[in-house]
């Protein structure tokens, strides 16, 4: 059994579907403070640092139980990082900025034991957003708000959010919020899952 340092529904669903025995515990970390401290860092490094912070914090209290932390960062082509929208209006603004362009979604996973990281993996997916009309954005938010309030990028790829895209490059799991296949590989390597 492992601990997932997250309450993310999509990360829990991935582990459930893969047959991983886990307990989910929220990490309750200061993500905004970490982002401010790492201003100017690459989205890759930021996602990795946030995943590590979550895993290490929960692991410090979990003893020998492995703790999986994960985080995702969305970076627009101009380098702007998008956070989770705090309002429907902010979500509409994010979608308008994404319209007709592409962005990178970085998902990191870190496993910690005894309060220190022992394994990590970061993956990038590139998502190409089709041109979105204001009317479409409004209808989409009628359907998806507030469910996407906790989603960086304002979409659930496993739901109506797939309608936003013309093309996607990268792992479906990475887009869902965790590089699942490398995580599973490490869990098998350590004997925490059947090989």
What does this protein structure show overall?
This protein is an alpha/beta fold and 195 residues long. The chain has 7 helices and 7 strands. Strand 1, helix 1 (9-18) and strand 2 (22-24) form a beta-alpha-beta unit.
Task: Compose a concise summary of this entry.
With 195 residues, the chain is of the alpha/beta class.
Tag the structure with descriptive keywords.
7-stranded mixed β-sheet; 7 strands; alpha/beta; 195 residues; 38% helix; globular
Radius of gyration: 17 Å
- Distance between the terminal alpha carbons, to the nearest Å? 15 Å
Mean of all residue-level pLDDT scores: 95
| Proportion of residues in β-strands | 25-35%
Q: What share of the residues lie within helices?
A: 25-40%
**What does the overall shape look like?**
globular
Helix count equals 7
Element-level helix/strand string: EHEHHEEHEEHEHH
Helices and strands: which structural class?
alpha/beta
Largest sheet: 7 strands, mixed
What is the number of E strands? 7
Which regions contain 5 or more consecutive residues with pLDDT less than 50? none
What order do the helices and strands come in, and which of them pair?
Layout: E1 2-4, H1 9-18, E2 22-24, H2 31-37, H3 43-62, E3 67-76, E4 81-82, H4 88-98, E5 102-113, E6 116-129, H5 134-144, E7 165-169, H6 172-176, H7 180-189
Parallel strand pairs: 1-2, 1-3
Antiparallel strand pairs: 3-4, 3-5, 5-6, 6-7
